Amino acid sequence: MAYTKEDILNKCEDALKNPSTFYQADVINYRGKTADGILYNEIVAEFVCDNFDKLTFGIDKITREETYKTQSHDGEFNPNSKREEEITAIKMFNQCKDDSVYDFIGKIIDYQTPLKNTSKDEAGKIDLLSFDGKTLRILELKKKDSKETMLRCVLEGFTYLCTVDKAKLLKDFSLSDDTEVVACPFVFFDEEQHKEMKEDRPWLKKVMMLMNSKPYYIKEENGYYKTTEG
């Protein structure tokens, strides 16, 4: 039995009781439609637009007492690990070790950047940070076969952008204090999230506009990664 629009909105209202974890709500990954053909995900996206200020100002900012720049991030990883997303992030970081840069996003300068200050904080880790000389990007990476929606990806990255102490983040990575900081989806070309962007999803695109969130896409060829737009 399909959910109604009211059902979806009720789930959204319940999830928004904690803006910092709103992006984790199951409803954000629903892929079905109401009986009259409205995508659940578009209903959620419209809700986000209607409650943008409540979401934005409700996300708790966390300032780390320790540095955001983790010295042990040397690009080493266990090749037998099942943490596919993390391994992809490290491989992409390693590809920049010889001063190589990616098209559109620049040089990846860190991976798995911590957001928590204490173990009690409700915050994840930034998958990747990239810098192109002007803009620092918080990149929300999804593995190649991820079934998460693009909306989930956008909301997660935006939550991290609101959570991080941007001034301290820039200082810890020795970047100018007038550097722009944005959060962007970083997903594989021709996979689920990229396909969504080709569909008629006006509310998803409005969310991305409000959040200044531009998607970038990954192409892998023989273990070598490239990035593209659109």
Give the tags.
6-stranded mixed beta sheet; single chain; globular; 6 strands; alpha/beta; 230 residues
Give an overview in words.
By secondary structure, this protein is of the alpha/beta class. The chain has one domain (5-229). It is built from eight helices and six strands, in the order ααααβββααβααββ. It has helices spanning 5-15, 40-50, 52-58, 84-94, 150-163, 166-172, 192-197, 202-210, and strands at residues 107-114, 125-131, 135-141, 180-188, 216-221, 224-229. It has a six-stranded mixed β-sheet, sandwiched between helices. β2 and β3 (135-141) form a beta hairpin. The longest helix has 14 residues, at 150-163. The radius of gyration is 18 Å and the shape is globular. The mean pLDDT is 95.
Task: Give a quick precis of the structure.
This protein is an alpha/beta fold and 230 residues long.
Outline the secondary-structure elements:
Blueprint: H1 5-15, H2 40-50, H3 52-58, H4 84-94, E1 107-114, E2 125-131, E3 135-141, H5 150-163, H6 166-172, E4 180-188, H7 192-197, H8 202-210, E5 216-221, E6 224-229
Structural class of the helices, strands and pairings? alpha/beta
Compute the number of helices: 8
State the shape: globular
pLDDT < 50 runs, ≥5 residues: none
State the total count of DSSP E strands.
Answer: 6
Q: What's the mean pLDDT score?
A: 95
Strand order of the largest sheet: 1-2-3-4-5-6
Helix content: 25-40%
Describe the sheet with the most strands.
6 strands, mixed
Instruction: Give me the Rg, rounded.
Output: 18 Å
The tally of domains stands at: 1
Tell me the distance between the termini: 35 Å
Which series of helices and strands comes N to C? HHHHEEEHHEHHEE
Beta content? 15-25%
